[in-house]
Amino acid sequence: MSKYTVIVVGMGKRGKHHAEAFNNNENFDVVGICDIDEPRLAEAKDMLGTDVKTSTDAAALVAELKPDVLCFCTMPHLRTPFIQMAIDNNCKLVAFEKPVGNSSKSAKEIKELIDNSGIKAVVSHQHRYGKHYQKVKEIAASGALGKIHTIYASTPGWMMHMITHMIDYMRWYNDNADAEWVMGQAAGGSKFSDNHPSPDYIAGFINFSNGVRGIVETGAGAPNIPEVEKWWGRNRIRVMGDNGFAEVLTNGGWRSVTADGGAQSGDGAMNYVEDMPPYIQEIADWLDDDSKIHSCNFDSAYKGFEIMLGLCQSAVNGGQVALPLQNTTDEIADLKNAIGDQKVLLASPEHAAEFC
What DSSP letter does each residue of 250-262 carry, written as one string? Predict the structure, then answer.
């Protein structure tokens, strides 16, 4: 197995997670890190404990070191320049945070860059590596649920933070079936000023090509899960079939009821220390062997992102939206114009701390 050089841009929480995980994997050599915040950059360098080169200028650092992998952890509106930077400097792979972009316009441009260049691309939907997420996948794939007919997902976190996580794992539990159409509705405008701009609440239906129905809701109107202590971990994905159900809670383990197995449950919680290493290892495996496509590959993430955008377009224009999308627009701007400063109605008083 080869050893690959890496530059990580953005030394916030997620950037540090990526830099540390790459640094701890023997297949990678973190040669550079970048952030415009110099104290944050110095802190990250101390954490890595290596001779890693630092810079506040990503373009200059990448041009100088020409890494095999460019990983960037930035806000949703900052995608295209870094992908172009990776392509221009002959990087083999680019890895970045979800969501894919901030609109169908930006996502289409990103997809064209990746498709035309042939660069490998990975989007970080890494919750799937948790043992409780894996257990629900095992149950769903085993046939113990009978014929699967519905997959439901909810999270109190707002759309740009959380919905593509939910959709990505819904598709995974449904054998990555394509969506044919979606229909959605949205409410509340307080989070349009957030660094992950979103409606306060969005919910909708997904019609998958294999007949499975998806139902997803994110934000202030999503149900609370009070038995889970961490608010951001109160996320549920439930797979339902003719013979039972299995569900995962991001910070609350898993549980199932099936005709043959009765009621079962187990522990599990999102843990970057445990979930990042297999995500990083799959990057090495894909770089070594083109047939070992990463579970979080861009093409799959793009399909999930289109589902989110379809829900947004439906919320603005009404009716069903066919997939793949035929029209590109700025969905967040369109939603903001449609919703304005409308106040959202909360599903739980415990959501009030995040939605005012």
Answer: TTTEEEEEETTTE
Q: Are 158 and 200 in contact (CB under 8 A)?
A: yes
How far is residue 261's CA from residue 140's CA, in Å, rounded to a whole number?
13
Q: How confident is the model at residue 1 (pLDDT cuts 50, 70, 90)?
A: low
Helix/strand/coil for 213: strand
d(CA 321, CA 196): 23
5 Cα distance to chain centroid:
24
pLDDT tens digits for range 296-344: 999 999 999 999 999 999 999 999 999 999 999 999 999 999 999 889 9
Give backbone dihedrals phi and psi of 114, rounded to 5 degrees, phi first. Answer: -70, -45
Residue pair 25/276 in contact (Cβ under 8 Å)? The answer is no
Reading the block at residue 99, the tokens are 């969501």
Residue 22 CA to residue 92 CA, distance in Å, equals 15
* DSSP summary character for residue 177: P
Which backbone phi and psi does 327 adopt, to 5 degrees?
Answer: -115, 140
Torsion of CA 86, 87, 90, 91, to 10 degrees: 40
- Distance between CA atoms of 31 and 73, rounded to whole angstroms? 16
- Residue whose C-alpha is closest to residue 122's, from 85, 159, 97, 86: 97
Q: What are phi and psi of 218, to 5 degrees?
A: -135, 140
Length of the chain as a residue count: 356
Residue 245, strand partner residues: 240, 257
Sign of CA dihedral 39, 40, 41, 45: positive
Query: How many helical (H) and strand (E) elements, i.e. helices and strands, does the chain have?
Result: 10, 15
pTM exceeding 0.90: yes
Q: What is the spatial distance between Cα 82 and Cα 295, in angstroms, rounded to a whole number?
A: 22
The domains found in the chain, sorted by start residue, are: 4-124 (3.40.50.720), 128-270+305-339 (3.30.360.10)
What are the residues facing 202 on neighbouring strands?
Answer: 186, 218
- The mean pLDDT of the chain is 96
Inform me whether the pLDDT recorded for 2 exceeds 90: no
Q: For 318, which DSSP code?
A: -
